[in-house]
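Ticket 4471: requesting a sanity check on a complex prediction with NAP. Repro inputs:
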Amino acid sequence: MNLEGKIALVTGASRGIGRAIAMELSAGGAFVIVNYNGSESAAAETVRAIETAGGQAEAWQCNVADYGACEQMINGVLEKYKHIDILVNNAGITRDNLLMKMSEAEFDAVIDTNLKGTFHTMRFVSRQMLKQRSGRIINLASVVGIVGNAGQTNYAASKAGVIGMTKTAAKELAARGITVNAIAPGFIETDMTDKLSEKIREQMNAQIPLGRFGKPEYVAKAAAFLASDDASYITGQVLNVDGGMVM
Ligand code: NAP
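Returned structure tokens:
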């Protein structure tokens, strides 16, 4: 995989899957913008890890749920680095609750970050990628957006929405050589899944044919492939990285 000279923006790269994707894209030679919202020191740690491994990166604060802030971030990156070749929409949150107990605030928070956040960055990056006549967009969905999950009405809606937007953007941008794909992870060990009870973890594990939870690095390898020239004829797809959980 050769990503030399590419500028990559990875949202939510301070921790978890986003950090692993930032590291993997950097290992391929890309300069990585490490976006974060609240975790400034964790984002600095991602940048340090990239630099220690011989790569280059810069941390960039932006709440992806904020339309104007996303416009500012992307304009700022373009002013400084002149192009954006890879956009990975990874920032995401959960606010789980049963349907009959879910508050409007819980529903809105998840939609605003996971779904609207993905729209915001794609909206502002697409103009530049159309001008460049090239680009790679990779959106983090979830198997939950395909099969649903009790207690995650908001999250499932956001991720099903991400899949619909991915396919739509893929159709709109294909004529200029831009590919747009989604990755649907299953159960990956990060802060997001750490908070689940032992009972839920056991139930989840029982549904994974490969018999183990995933690591952020597994998702990062798939993202790096989709970002590479080797994936130039793949667009509008949803790639499950889930140990066979959904097939
Ligand atoms: P995580 O460990 O909780 O990390 C979430 C990341 O998103 C953090 O870097 C966080 O940054 C960032 N973030 C959250 N809200 C943001 C906002 N408004 N603006 C900018 N950044 C924001 O989560 P993860 O498990 O790595 O998940 C990464 C993605 O994969 C998410 O989209 C998630 O839905 C998806 N996914 C995960 C799993 C899994 O099993 N872990 C499964 C399927 C899909 P700050 O800390 O700076 O706020």
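Notes from triage: The longest helix spans residues 104-132. Leaving this open until the requester confirms.
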